User: Fold this.
Amino acid sequence: MPVLTPTLDPTVTKEERVVENERQLLSVQFSADGQFVFAGGYDGRLYRWSLADAEAKLVGFDAHKGWVEGMVLHPDGKRLLTADSWGQVHCWTISDGEMKPDWTIEQTNSSWLHKLAVSPDGKFLATCGNEHIVRLFSAADGKLVRELKGHEHHVHSVAFHNDGNSLVSGDLRGIVKHWKISDGSLTRELDAGKLYKPYYQYHQGGVRCMTFDDDFKTLYCAGFEGKNANQAQGTPTVVAFNWESGKQQVIMTPKDSYTGPILQVAYHSAGYLIGAGSSEAGGMLWFWKPGEEKDSHKVKNVTSFRSFAINADGTRLVATTFGDRGGQRGGNGRRLNKEGEYPGFAGSMVLYSLTEQPV
Amino acid sequence: MKHPYACRSAEHGISRRGMMQTLLGGATVGASMPGLLEHAFADRVKQQRKQILFVWLDGAMSQLESWDPKPGTQFGGPFRDIQTALPGVRVSELMPNMAQRLDRFSVVRSMHTQFEDHSRAVKPIQRGDPKNRGVTYPFFGSAIAKLLGSGDSGLPPYMHIKPGSGGFMYQDAGFLGARYGALALGDGKPPANLIPPKEITPEVNAARLSLRDRLNRRFAERRVPDLSNAYNYTYEISQQMMKHSDLFDPSRLDAKDIERYGGSEFGTHMVQARRLLEAGVTFVKVTMYRWDTHGDNFNCHQDGVPQVDTALAAMIDDLIERGLYDHTLVVVMSEFGRTPKINGRIGRDHWPECWSMGMGGAGIKPGVIVGKTNDKGSFNDGKEYDVGHLFHTFFRAIGVDPEKTEYDNIGQPLPIAHDDHHPIEELLA
Assistant:
């Protein structure tokens, strides 16, 4: 039987399935075999979604106490690492049964952890957060290897290069630092200041997310270009750097007038950069071709996107969203439901197929 | 009588001369109008000499990320809480310095106010939201300027340090008249022309003053005394400000102080505020913008709350060390709180239903936590307080009895705080 290689066609992106959750969801990852999706919640729980069963609901596990914003799949495909806003990291063995952490770093950081990354060789785990320090741990047992100090502001994003000795981290002021893993020294800084704008005493923006392309020749840093307001308003923006020269290649923005940050970017091996926008008016996925300033396609969602992941063969994308799919919006003052209660927003995950034939 | 020197611009740039003109304009309109109806009041105030530091967190700081955290609950947000100096009382991890000083400060966790948008809330809240009597009530600072005056500092009684532009904010004074408005130092910068040109030597300046005195006496002979008094008042204030020009020079602030106050712009403004209090300014307001966090609430608070925490804690330490805390009322508040619900932009919206504010110093019992919210932090659980209660409390704390003191608006007696409200007695020392 011939094996068909699916080809990404953004124009056929189709919502395949939605699963709802009582609490809002943040981080998300596919398992290596694509059979499960894992998500981290505002309630500190780790959720597992089995895609084999079209009717499956989320299964939750006690995991963290704070928001689970950091999540990364280990390159071995067997382990999942999660991090929370109280500074704790768990390493899990992926399973279809009960899940408990294999090991835990109780306190990596004195404050909110935003992102995690694992080196391509699987040896190192990097954490970043609001403490201004990037930390390297052994991905085997969670032991601290090195602290990378130099950022003067919150660090929102971190990524490894595949050269075996490079790590990048991006902060609130749009400063991207290129570190040498072997000794923790700073190699250079890249300027993504486009993603930062002060407004009176508010520092808004930052490198909210970053990713390399498949051949590690381009680094994409994303967030938003702030306006003169203190509400995270602004143009969703990606700053692309030539990795070798460190020079900016292109500033990528949407064709539309969407306002809000890009909270997740990922490179699809078919040659697209995908970014997810977060706004009260709804979420948006944009598809850019490398080197082009404007997106070639977009997909709208009724609720705001928080994060997304692409499965190993590139056929599916899953996104965490928050907001009420029934149309409940935020707003000022007392807003009670018909029962006279004050409800919070629910969360959901949306599974998209990216190819002509839904999987 | 026309008063052509009255400044009619609301947004003119600040200058010593411009301030004088504005003060004069307002004073001539209001000098014979509003007074106070309690006669023995002035003497008492003079004996007690209270001052106020009013920290205004414009846009509304979240109670859940500061004074009233609910970690691990539906609306709790990403942060932890920490133990304070008060057994069993916890605040957000973003306030480690104030947590250690909560035995010297007090918090109301059960505020409930009437307005859910800025345009309707900012002014009424700062006026104490009294009953509508067809007049525009003064902001807190203007009320204090009227009630307590300048003392013997010779400096304007109401000064405001704020980001952005400065100027004379006569609108704050409402029916009291422009004289009681705020002199605002935009970005903490001093009024323009405060330093005389080099050509004006002390001898030349003395000659100018002598000439002014002669002209002023002639002017007074043909006008009502109030008018010339207002002239003299404003001129004296300006002269005093020129004598204290170092007070308004940010470059003279101690770098170590700025560092202790957190090194932020807000922290620097708080150091300036302390200097103004030390110099005897009766009411110093410090405004911090940035708090209207409908989007990205948590990163914003992670950045902003520690700025408040560090500077406020350093301020309290300094006031105590200098012996000023016992007669300086310190108030920290916003126009409302922020929603428990976390919206689709990872923000919190406006929430007057239940929110927190802090106060300490003069007349305030330290280490008191007033009221509580329910487990989710969505509504008050038990007795709640409006801003009218706060104003009664503030006035009582500085020795002004709102039950006995009224404004006299051309014969119209007006209460200085909401008639139906009362002080929060458990806060009063």
Observations:
- Chain A touches chain B through 49 residues (CB under 8 Å).
- The mean pLDDT of chain A is 92.
- DSSP finds no helices and 30 strands in chain A.
- The radius of gyration of chain A is 19 Å.
